[in-house]
Design goal:
Blueprint: H1 3-22, E1 28-31, E2 37-40, H2 42-48, H3 63-66, H4 71-84, E3 86-96, E4 100-112, E5 119-127, H5 129-162, H6 170-192, E6 198-199, H7 200-208, E7 218-220, E8 227-228, H8 230-249, E9 259-267, E10 272-280, H9 293-305, E11 309-315, E12 318-326, E13 330-331
Parallel strand pairs: 7-9
Antiparallel strand pairs: 1-2, 1-5, 3-4, 4-5, 6-8, 8-13, 9-10, 10-12, 11-12
């Protein structure tokens, strides 16, 4: 075999080996014992946006104007690998000028040469940046879910504790508690079943749908589009449920001819949301001598949870409730 044939054979073998290396999806480097790059896969060049000429033959820590001069990685390759033979999935997070911030799992193995004492390193980089972001998002989601469940149980406990028991049958207590708890579940589903906000019109429609079987019993007047955040939905749904429950027991919805009209508008340069609940055609209305739990819930929820205020007028023609809350929790869409 002459020199030309030998050269051709060696070159063919080198091309075949490089082709095999280039099929590997993760970035790969072959380093000598001084950490100079002897070979690299195509995915390495693509991932880190570097060229072959500026990579092969150069020390790893000089690549890309020093972007690979990472102390923990350098210690790993110089100290750990020669002693441990291999290191699996060592995590490195770093800002790479050509690729941005990356989180890499580094696996390094020692390649021993039987005919010489020196050794080479086969280094594989697995990009787990997106995986770590998904894991962080999942952890945040689980944390938020735990927080939501804790809050939901706390509200349910408060409803059970404050629902009146004196002078009432077990069935009456059950019906009141389940009605309030059902409104809480409905609000929870509406607030978190879909991404993004929920419109005030949708909230009002869903809360009042059980009372809308009679055509004109509930009239929801068109109003501006107002998007509500989850916390506002939870609080406002409880307020609307209490108004509807009281109307069904004692007010306009307790008689065949009674009617509830609800409307809303934005005021003060769209900084305040004003909701008006007006009853008519029901029994004669008088101010109660003492506020019940439902009335106290409406007032406290509007004040402390929504940061607003509520005014209730017990007029002869029917109850009128005006709720005003800041648009901090009720956001008009762009």
């Amino acid at each position: 075999m002459n020199m030309e044939d030998l050269y051709r054979l060696l070159r063919t073998g080198h091309v075949q080996l490089q082709s095999i290396v280039d099929t590997i999806g993760d970035p790969l480097l072959v380093l000598d014992d001084s950490l100079c790059v002897q070979g690299a896969s195509r995915s390495f060049f693509q991932t880190f946006n570097v060229g072959r000429d500026e990579t092969i033959g150069r020390p790893l820590y000089e690549l890309g104007d020093g972007q690979w001069d990472i102390p923990e990685l350098r210690r790993l390759l110089l100290e750990v690998v020669p002693k441990a033979t291999a290191v699996i999935d060592y995590e490195v997070t770093h800002d790479f000028p050509g690729a941005g911030r990356k989180t890499m799992l580094v696996t390094a193995r020692t390649l021993h040469h039987p005919d010489r004492p020196s050794h080479s390193l086969l280094v594989v980089f697995v990009d787990v940046t997106d995986r770590r972001r998904r894991e962080a998002a999942k952890d945040m989601l689980f944390g938020e879910l735990r927080h939501r469940i804790k809050n939901l149980l706390a509200v349910a406990q408060s409803i059970a504790r404050h629902t009146a028991t004196e002078g009432r049958t077990a069935e009456e207590f059950r019906d009141d508690f389940l009605g309030r708890f059902g409104a809480l579940v409905e609000a929870q589903d509406l607030a978190f079943s879909e991404q993004g906000g929920t419109g005030l019109a949708e909230l009002v429609t869903r809360i009042l749908s059980p009372y809308s079987s009679r055509g004109e019993a509930v009239v929801i007047e068109p109003g501006p589009d107002v998007e509500l955040g989850p916390r506002t939905i939870m609080a406002l749904s409880m307020v609307l449920h209490e108004l509807a429950t009281n109307a069904a027991k004692y007010g306009a919805l307790s008689t065949p001819a009674g009617q509830v009209r609800i409307n809303w508008q934005l005021e003060d340069d769209n900084t305040q949301l004003r909701i008006e609940w007006a009853e008519s055609g029901g029994p004669s209305v008088t101010r109660p001598s003492a506020a019940g739990y439902g009335t106290r819930l409406i007032q406290s929820t509007t004040t402390y949870n929504l940061g607003g205020h509520v005014e209730q007028k017990y007029e002869a023609g029917g109850l009128t409730s005006v709720i005003v809350i800041p648009v901090g929790g009720a956001i008009p869409p762009n």
